[in-house]
Amino acid sequence: MPDIDTASVVKIGKIYVTGNKRTLESIILRELSFAEGDQIKVSDLADKIVLDQQKLINTRLFVTAEIVPLFLSSTQCEVLIRLQERWYVFPVPIFKLADRNFTEWWVNQNRDFSRVNYGMQLYHLNFSGRNDRLVVRTQFGFTKRYSFQYSVPYINRAQTAGLTLSTSFDTNKTVSYASDGHLQQFVQSEDVIRRIFSTTGAITFRPSFYNRHSFILNYNRGSIADTVFRLNSEYFQANTQLQQYFAFGYSFVHDRRDYVAYPLTGTEFTFNFNQFGLGIFDDINMTSTRLGYGTFSQLSKKLYLANRVDIYKNFSDEIPYLIRAGFGYNPDFIRGYERYVIESDFLASYRTALRYEVLKGVKQINPRSMIDQFRTLPYAFYLKVFLDTGYAGDSLASNINNFYNNQWIGSVGVGLDIVTYYDFVVRLEYSINREGSTGFFFNFRSAL
Known about the structure:
Elements: E1 9-18, H1 25-29, E2 39-41, H2 42-58, E3 62-71, E4 76-85, E5 89-97, H3 102-108, E6 116-124, E7 133-141, E8 143-152, E9 161-172, E10 174-180, E11 183-188, E12 194-205, E13 211-224, H4 226-231, E14 242-255, E15 266-276, E16 286-298, E17 303-314, E18 326-327, E19 342-343, E20 346-364, E21 376-392, E22 399-400, E23 407-420, E24 424-433, E25 438-443
């Protein structure tokens, strides 16, 4: 290899890609910030390689991604991209709690196994090699569901526009209809008491590596039985047992996080706008917005700081029970309050965590395995201390004894995060909230 001055400029020659047995090369090259024929300063090329490796991993198509510059001379450079693809086809059995989180099921619902969903789902996470995803689900148990979703990130030659289509049909014999003391109240029947059909189409626009716009059109039709209507006549906004509406949504995401599943460095900004009801059926008229901003920074070799702020506002005077937000519902939560739902038309939260990398590596499982994707097991363990705080505004109709509304709540705690194969994250946490209640909790996605 020739001696290279980092201040010199090199011309990018041929880009070689290896390891992409299914993924199309165009999908891989789309993530690069340079192309064949570009002239780049050597020092800038090094920085671009680091960021481009992260972008390839964040496509969630590859277990590993390595970009190697091959300097032919002080002015000429070729590039080798070495990839290990993930396993893309998963026929996965469904065995999942129907409740909001494990604590809701374990404590509030007394570990009731009738509140479990089971069935089968088929994932193909790279259907045609274009990072297009197909998901088909047949589910029974607490919620009977039949659903289909197909998404493709690029449908145009410039690889800037994508498409998602989905449809689902759900039925329930047990539904929540109100809350008392911030605990959900449920009604149960031998017959189906709620039916919901939904179909959605979304166009995504990704003009640059880090910015994504989504335009979403949804049709929703829901019905409830007399049993539910008698308990809550405001279950739907139109004070009826049948509600159907079209909804429009827009979202913008600016994402510069290093790894989406468990970010350690970078930033993320999100904005969402939703209009429920477009004047076609007049069953609902509701507008909501959401803002989120997260920062992630490395303080030392193994010490990391994460912060996130979220704000939600619903501008409607009448919010149907079926479509409401609050702490305890995804994506809003305050650790230490896992048992509760704190619903409102306004939410604000701040979450922070200081993480220390205890252990990180890749374990060889079976080097002789016929399936490359399962020869190794990546893992990382992070000890952390955290602080959460949040504010929920006025309580909503159908709820009583709302002692957490219109005041700040919060918690502090310690925990262990485990990050492993295929973006799988386990959170083990012990927290104490503002009221002095303590508890040990675990969840299966990153808190920040």
